[in-house]
Amino acid sequence: MGEAKRRQSAQTVGRPWPPKLPPLPPGTANATPATRELQRLAMLGRMAETNTRTALQAARAATDNGARDQILDSILQGACGLLEGEVRTAYAANAESARLWSTVACRKGCSWCCHIQVETTIVEAIVVSRQVAKSESLTASVLAAAPAVAGTDSVGRLRKRVACPLLVDGACSVYDHRPGACRAHVSLDDKACETALKTAGTADEARKIPTVVVPRKIDTAISFGVRRACAAENLQSCDVELTAALCLLATDSTAVSRWLAGETVFTPYP
């Protein structure tokens, strides 16, 4: 894409992604439900890759950081809007699915699961970091939490009982910008989540939490598409751990520009 087209793209990108996929082609009508699900997930990945790649090209062509940041934000909002639209479609498919979705236990103020490592795309971490930068207290919380959980996995962090640094009074302070992984982690039993946290690292450790699987499948497909778009643009495309990435972004004002220039900036996770 030439420079003129890149700048034109930078002016028009950011329109909302479609909130859900179009119907599968007629030829798939006789396929098994499992096959149709795989086809739909593949389509999600391709849609995410196409939209993300267009936005990344525009972000790299943007002439100021404000425009660049707005374009990157459109990726997270588009991906998460698609995720939530697809989840609604999936659980409205039949009465049993709707019944299952009605039993979801997650609610505001329930933060038991917010004590595990959060694996995100680099774009998600960048967008969240902009919200963190607006608050001195959130920034301080991130800088304090990062060394405490460095090098741990999700179980290890749970055992340390280090909460997400973005929690304020038990609620997510960046809720509208939270990553797809947080949106897709859906429990059917908040008491089981509470028990898992309180018993982590003890002889009575309990890890069995009944969760809803479909949102995680959808988020995985979309995140894969975002990473493929990064790779296609010769950008570092690994997933990162959210707290560690936020710490880096809070302490290195050049990180985003260097990443968009093709440098390896972030520590891959896991």
- Total of DSSP H or I helical runs spanning 4+ residues: 12
**Could you give the count of β-strands?**
4
Element-level helix/strand string: HHHHEHHHEEHHHEHH
Give the N-to-C terminal Cα separation.
34 Å
Radius of gyration: 19 Å
Largest sheet: 2 strands, antiparallel
What are the low-pLDDT stretches, counting only 5+ consecutive residues below 50?
1-12
Tell me the strand percentage band.
under 5%
Describe this structure in words.
- There is one protein chain.
- The protein is mostly helical and 270 residues long.
- The chain has one domain (3-260).
- It has helices spanning 3-12, 33-61, 65-91, 95-102, 122-132, 136-149, 154-160, 180-184, 190-199, 214-232, 242-251, 255-260, and strands at 119-121, 167-168, 171-172, 239-241.
- The strands form 2 sheets. Strands 1-4 form a two-stranded antiparallel ribbon. A two-stranded antiparallel sheet has the order 2-3.
- Helix 3 packs across helix 5 (122-132) and helix 6 (136-149) packs across helix 11 (242-251).
Task: Jot down its keywords.
mainly alpha, globular, 270 residues, 12 helices, 4 strands, 4% strand, 58% helix, two-stranded antiparallel sheet, disordered N terminus
Topology of this protein?
Blueprint: H1 3-12, H2 33-61, H3 65-91, H4 95-102, E1 119-121, H5 122-132, H6 136-149, H7 154-160, E2 167-168, E3 171-172, H8 180-184, H9 190-199, H10 214-232, E4 239-241, H11 242-251, H12 255-260
Antiparallel strand pairs: 1-4, 2-3
Helix pairs in contact: 1-2, 2-3, 2-10, 3-5, 3-10, 5-11, 6-11
